[in-house]
Amino acid sequence: MKRIALNLSIALRSLYSFKLRTSLAVLGVLLGTLSLIVVSNLTGSLVKQGEKELEKLGKNLLLVQSGTAIRFGMRTRVMSTADTLKVADIQAIKDHSPHVSMVAPTSTRTFPIRYGNILLGNTIVTGTSSSFTHVRNFQVERGRFFTDEEDEQLERGVVLGSGVARRLFGTEDPLGRHILVRRVPCQVIGVMEEKGVDLSNVDQDDQVFVPIRTFLKRFVNQEHVANIFVQTINSESMMAAKSQVEAILRDRHNLQPGQEDDFTVIDSRDLLELKTQTTSMITLLGRIAATISFLIGAMGILSIMILIVNERKEEIGIRRAVGSRRRDIVLQFLMESSFIALLGGMVGVFLGLATSLAIFYFSGLPLSISPPAIALAFCSSVLVGILAGIYPSKKATTIQPINILRS
Amino acid sequence: MPLCSLKNIRKSYSLGQEEVEILRGISLEIQEGEFVALMGPSGSGKTTLMNIIGCLDVPTTGEYIFAGQKVSGLTDDELSIFRNEHMGFVFQNFHLLPYANVLENVLLPTLYVSGKKEGAPLKRARELLKLVGLEDRERFKPSQLSGGQQQRVAIARALVNDPRLILADEPTGQLDSSTAREIMDLLQKMGHGGKTVMVITHDLATAAYAERKVHMQDGLVSG
Lengths: 407, 223
Description:
The complex is a heterodimer. Chain A has 2 domains: 2-53 and 275-405, no CATH class; 83-261, no CATH class. Helices cover 56% and strands 20% of the residues of chain A. Chain A contains 14 helices and 12 strands. A 6-stranded mixed beta barrel of chain A has the order 4-5-10-7-9-8. In chain A, strand 4 (100-115) and strand 5 form a beta hairpin. Chain B contains 7 helices and 10 strands. The longest helix of chain B is centred in the C-terminal third of the chain and has 16 residues, at 177-192. The two termini of chain B are 22 Å apart. The chains are: A alpha+beta, B alpha/beta. Chains A and B meet through helix 1, helix 11, helix 12 and helix 14 of A and helix 2 of B.
């Protein structure tokens, strides 16, 4: 131990005389570990974030859309429309698929809404059923959501999104007031909690909710719905539920074998796909950056070690003369190069953690620290140090004491 | 039994196409405790002979036996260990580590002591520094010392592993005559303490300290 300490203290003083080059080498390894750690933490955080968003959309959710649609990542492009998805289909899905726990239809259209003098132009009006709050994991904050009975009786109760409520009523209590939705007077019975933008890219606070039958009859005068949200009993039953829903709907829509579906069933997990792609892109770029930094660090260490070996030819000669073996010399220089790398690694890990925490703090992303990444960063930096030290230390052993000491 | 026994040692180097023979059949014996001066004009092969005796170099042909052990067949690692245990070197240019302080320089050979006999290197190094009169300079860098003081540090370093043979190549070459005397007095003191000392020099005043003078000429011992 004492020997290592003495050797290291001599080495440190020699490194100190090459301050600039040493710090460049340290910097390379530092940046490598830093980017490795930041990227790993960020990736972990984005995955967490995605899970959170999925949770926000609703757990174990299938989305049935009328007509055929092709998804481009988050966007859905309708390829053909259909008016075959009916309110009765909802009950059928609920009754005939054992994997389905709850079902809620939605249809939306934009209408002007008005309270007193305040007019909100195109506001999203969503017709849905009482199970919506549960299926979409979206709760009423004040008042209540409408009931199935109110739906059956085509009642004109309306539940406001928190943003709409704020703009129409300000600090006034909206409960019990009447607003005009497309000139139809409706009574406010509830206000939703704040939810923000979810995976469907719609600001959930910027809409109002009315019973689906009221919506179809009084607002749009049609019989078909646009979407059905289907919640399955657990995440394992998603696949089974999907094929059951497809079978039920094909049967109810009298589709013959070979005939195309007039609806599309989307697994909510697929909505995450694009996000996942983004995440893996970030991971890839980060890894590339880390690799390049490590390479720069390695080149830095390589060049500084070659310099050091040249500078210390006399020292190597002296050491050989007083009895150091070739392997002692190799070991000494490998230790020095690993030390440079480890120094960069430690500072890099520290700064990487600090940077990650700062990013999480300022972006509001969920906290995620990856211990394997820290371990990997440490190992990589030591490995870089050792690899970069091999050539210079081998070179050091070719120095013959008699050639050095004669002068 | 002599400490060093050299029989018909030859050493040649190839300079491009040409083969240059530096040592042309040297036979020499050095007894334990002797103080020997190796003299001769430059190019006569003194340093090459000293390198071979000090196990820094190996002869091309011939047999070298040190303290009853045949050195000629040893590997590079074994030679290193052999130097570490048995040889102490003092050079004309001192050859101290510039980054290390006086104490660390003296301790350097103890870093490479193999396995079993470690002893108390720090205590021994301090004793030796006292012996050469530099006990109050432990923390000094070589650059802060005079030439004579640096050579004293080198002598302490040569002695730290308690070697049987001290080899000094022009130890006074860089020093003025009064400092040179001090250094030679010190080496003589080592000799009286039972060490075998071999000094290369072409300075007669330095050679006068020796009990025996070996003259070299053209790669051969001349008398």
